[in-house]
Design brief:
The protein contains 12 helices and 9 strands. By secondary structure, it is an alpha/beta fold. It folds into 2 domains: 138 residues, Rossmann fold (3-Layer(aba) Sandwich), CATH 3.40.50; 147 residues, Aspartate/ornithine carbamoyltransferase (Rossmann fold, 3-Layer(aba) Sandwich). The strands form 2 sheets. Strands 7-6-5-8-9 form a 5-stranded parallel sheet. Strands 2-1-3-4 form a 4-stranded parallel sheet, with helices on both faces. Helix 2 links the parallel strand 1 and strand 2. Helix 5 crosses helix 11. The longest helix has 20 residues. The protein is globular, with a radius of gyration of 20 Å.
């Protein structure tokens, strides 16, 4: 039995055993999503603080729904109303939240390392819901769960990642996670978005220019969201990106027929992905959303759920930084 998590700040510091434990713990919560009555009392009396200093819709709603379905209350701080805009420091803001006695803080911030900074200054569990270009660990976990459900394994797979990898915390979490299970990676996108430094993350990483080459032999392809404002520079016009890197039905025909297509959302149809691919049989996009709820329920349960005294004696409730 792996050590129980104290925080979830990133995937890089987790062991393969800890990752598999979270994925296994998410399985009953996957089944729970199919029930007509989706309300448990597992975390009744607990409170989850959602501190989103960077705009978010999907991840914030997913964590809020996960807390609610476990019976927990939640308090919300959103970017547009954040005290940081009035000049308050991040530390003062989270200490104010902490003074309201939540049992856990889920936070998103535009600065890499922000979640780790908060975790070092508070005594309650901190969940990183995305920090700058560093990591998005719960997205990596839900992607792994989705791939494992479809493939039956996350070991020794060929994973392709397409798009703006330079600015993607999702790409880094996936490389850290799947790399622990022997996966190999092919990265594809405009050269300034696929830096050579990514080869230093640990697992085998291969960079290619042509999407057709990237898709060849892949077990799963993760298509990253592309911010349109980055596609108006003379070096990379919007129509050129679409022509070179969009995932289309024609390009899928050159790949394995059972290759999985994942996207962290929100999708921009007609830019990074063709609607026919987004809605096709190889697409796992909606499964990712459902699995996100299951993974986040499992994380909140593991971080703040009460354990019987007998389990605590076995060490399953001991904190692991």
């Amino acid at each position: 039995m792996p050590e129980r998590l104290r925080h979830l700040l990133g995937i890089e510091g987790l062991t393969a055993e800890q990752i598999l434990f979270v994925l296994d713990e998410a399985k009953p919560f996957q089944e729970f999503q199919r029930h007509p009555l989706k309300k448990l009392a597992t975390l009744r009396g607990k409170t989850v603080a959602l501190a989103f200093f960077e705009a978010s819709t999907r991840t914030r709603i997913s964590f809020a729904t996960a807390a609610s379905r476990l019976g927990a209350d939640s308090m919300n701080l959103q970017a547009e109303s954040s005290s940081l805009k009035k000049g308050e420091s991040l530390l003062d803001t989270v200490r104010t939240l902490d003074a309201m006695k939540p049992d856990c803080i889920v936070m998103r911030h535009s600065s890499s390392g922000a979640a780790d900074f908060v975790a070092r200054n508070l005594d309650i569990p901190v969940v990183n819901a995305g920090d700058g270009t560093h990591e998005h660990p719960s997205q990596g976990l839900l992607d792994a769960l989705t791939i494992r459900d479809r493939r039956g394994t996350i070991e020794n797979l060929k994973i392709t990642i397409v798009g703006d990898i330079l600015h993607s915390r999702v790409a880094r979490s996936n490389i850290h996670l799947l790399g622990k299970f022997g996966c190999q990676f092919t990265l594809c996108g405009p050269s300034m978005w696929v830096p050579k430094e990514l080869e230093c993350l640990g697992p085998p990483v291969h960079r290619v220019d042509r999407i057709e080459e990237a898709l060849d032999g892949a077990d799963a392809t993760i298509v990253l969201r592309v911010q349109q404002e980055r596609l108006h520079e003379p070096s990379l016009p919007l129509d050129e990106y679409i022509q070179l890197y969009q995932l289309t039905p024609e390009r899928l025909r050159g790949a394995r027929p059972d290759m999985l297509v994942l996207h962290p959302g929100p999708m921009i149809r007609g830019l990074e992905i063709d609607p026919a691919v987004a809605d096709g049989p190889q697409s796992c996009v909606l499964e990712q959303v459902t699995n996100g709820l299951a993974v986040r329920m499992a994380l909140l349960f593991q971080l703040i759920g009460s354990k019987p005294e007998s389990e605590d004696a076995k060490g399953t409730a001991h904190a692991a930084d």
